[in-house]
Amino acid sequence: MNILLVDPDASRRAELQEILRHGGHSVAEFADGASALAGLAEIRPDVVIAEAASREREGTDVFRKIRMSGPMTPPYLIAIGQLDAIASAESDSGAWDGDADDVLSHPIRAEEVTTRLLVARRTLERRHDEAAQIKRISRIPADSPHPIVELTSSGVLIHANLASIPLLETWGWVAGRPAPSALRHLAASARKQGKPKRAEIACGEQTYSFMAVGLDGGDVCLYGHNVSDLPALHPEPDTSRTSVVGHTTRDSLTGLPTQALLANRLGQALKHARITGTLVALVKVNIDNCADINDAYGHSVGDQLIILVGESLRDEVRVGDSVLRDNGDGFILVLQGIGSRETAGVTCSRFIRAAQQAGDDAGIGVRFTLSMGFALFPDDADSEQSLVERADQALAEAKNSGRNCWRDYPAAVGANPMIGAVRLLPRLMGALQTRQLHAQYQPIIAASTGAVAGFEALVRWHDQDLGWIPPDRFIPIAEARGLIAEVGRQMADMVFQQLAVWRKAGHLVTVSLNISKRQLWEPSFADAMHQLATERQLAPGWIIMEATERQSLLHDRACRDTLERLAAAGFRLSIDDFGSGHSTFDVVTDLPFHELKVNMSLSRKAQSPRGRHVVKAILGMCDTLGLESVAEGIEDATLGAILQEIGTDKLQGYFYSPPLSAEASLQFLQRHPRQPAPTPASAKG
Ligand code: C2E
Ligand code: CA
User: Fold this and answer.
1) 682 in any annotated domain
2) Is the terminal CB of the chain with fewer CB neighbours within 10 Å at N or C?
C-alpha cells in the first residue's frame, strides 16, 4: 500500500519506516502536517499514519483536512499514540474529533502495525466496492419510466435507474447491502434455468411484473413495469362460476393468487389429471410458529418472512403449477403431473431447504422452519374437497411430528390405518372416564455416578380395538378439545403415587411430568399440584415440571404466572425439547427454570466435532445460569460417553432404558447404584 507517515519524532519515524518497508509498503514520510498536506495530491496515499496525541498534534490537522477534501474513497487514517492520550488531547482542544479510523499504540510493535494495516486493507477494499457501486448507480440514464436494475451473479446490485429508486427504498435496500431478496431470487432463478424468467413482485401497495434476463458474465438485468391496475398477467379463468366473486383474488402482501382461486386451479388440475392419467399433489405449507416470530421480532419481519417464503415457493415450482396464499402464514401448492409419492416427498423437502436457503441469502436474521402436508389425487382422495381435507390432515401430522418436515396423508392416518379411520375423541373421553390411561417411566441417569437420578413419566393409552395409541396422536386432540387438564390430573395422581412408592423403597429419585401450555393456563393448576403433593407427603422439590418453549411460554402472561407460582411452591421447572426451532435462552433467564433438556437432534449433533462445540457451549451456558442439563434421545454408548465428557449432568434415552412400567421401574432401581442423598430442591450454581 501507499503510506503517508506524519510524525515529528524522527526515531519513531525511522522505526515505522523499517516495519512498513519490510511489509512491502511504499512510504512517504514527513515531520510536519503542512508539508504532508502539500504532498497529498501527488502521493495519493491509501493509508495515512500520523502522530495525534502530542502537543503539536500534527495528525489532527492532516486528518481533518483530508476528511474535508472529501474524496470518494478517502485514505484510511491511523493515529499514533495511546488511546487515553488521544482522548485527552481531544478533550483538551476538541480538536481531534475522532477523525481517525484506527489507533496505533505507542511504543510501536511490529505485529500491531501489521494487524492495523490488514484491517486497513480490508476496509479500503470495501470502501472501493461501495464507491464503485454508487458511481454506477449515479451513471444510469434516467430516461426509462420503468424500473431497470442489474445484479451480479452474487446478488449485488450494480445498476439501478431513477425509476427503480422508489422501489428500492420501499424494499428498504441500502447501498452496500445485497439487492432486495425478491429481485435476487428472480435473478437467480433466471440464471439457473438459463432463460428469461418473469414474476410479479409486490412493492408496498403496488405490484410490478419483472422480467429477468441473463447477461454475459453471470450478471442479470431485470426490467419491471407496474401492473397494479392491470388484469393479472395470466388472466384468471372465468371466475363467475366459482366462489371468487366478492373475494380478493390477489394477495396484497405476496402478490400471489389467494385461496379464493383454489377451487378453480385445483378443478383444472384434476380435470387435466383425469384425462392424462397423471397424479396431482395438493400441498399445504405452513410457516412454523409464525405468530411467535411476529411476537418476538415484530410484524414487519413476519411479513418479510411470508413474502420470502412465497417467492421461494414460486421460484421452485414448475411451469403450470400453482402457488396460492392460504391463511395468514400458509400457502397452498397444486403440483401437476407429479411422478410418484416419493417424488412429491422429495419435492417438499427441496421446497423446505430452498426457502431456508433463501432466508439465509436474504439475511432475514430469523431462523424459521416449514411444515408441509400433501395428499395425492387420485391415490389419496378423488375429489377436490377431500383432497384439501386430507392435505390438512397431513399438515397436522407434520406439525405433530415436531414440525420442519413433510407428511403425506397415509402417514397422517398412521401405520395403523384404523386410527385414522375412527374418530379418536369419543374414545379418548371414554378412556378418561374409565381411567384407562396409565404412565410409563423412563430412567434419567446421573452422568457423574451412573445412578438413577429420576424418571420421566410418559402417558400411555391402550385401546382395545386400536391397540397402542402414541401420545403424539392423542395429546394434540386432548389439547384442542379441552381434555388435557383431565389427562394431566390423572397423570399427576398416578405419578405422585409412584414417587411415594419409590421413596418408601428408599430410592431418592425425582419424577418429571410433561405439562401442556393449556394446563398452565388454568389458574388453579399450581395450587392443585401443591395440594396433591402435600396429600402424598411429597416435597415438591422432587417433582420436575417439563414445559416446552415450542408452546411459546415466554410471551404468555398466564403461563408465566403459573410457572412462577409452581417455582414458588418448590416444584422444579425444566425447559423441555431445547434445540427445536424456537429454543431460546431468554425463556430460561426470564423464568425460574432449574433444568434444561437438550433434545434428541441437538444431542446427536455432539457426534461431529463441530456439533460438539455447539452442544458444549450450550452446556456451558447452563452451567453459567445454574441450570442442570439433561441430554435426551441417547441410543448408543458412544454418544452417551461424548455427552458425559463434555459436561452433561444427566442422560436419558433408549441406550439406558426405554420407558418402563411401574413394576419394571422398581426393578431397574434395584439393579442400579443409588444416588447419593442430595437435598431435594437444590439447583446447580
Ligand atoms: P417428550 O417429552 O420429548 O418425551 C420423550 C419422547 O422420546 C418419548 O416419546 C420417549 O419415549 C421418546 N424417547 C425416549 N428416549 C428415546 C430415544 O433414545 N430415542 C427415541 N427415538 N425416542 C426416545 P413418547 O412417550 O411417545 O412421548 C412423546 C411426547 O408426548 C413427549 O415428548 C411429550 O411431549 C408428550 N407427552 C408424553 N406424555 C405426556 C403427558 O403425560 N402429558 C403431556 N402433556 N404430554 C405428554
Ligand atoms: Ca419431556
Assistant:
1) no
2) C
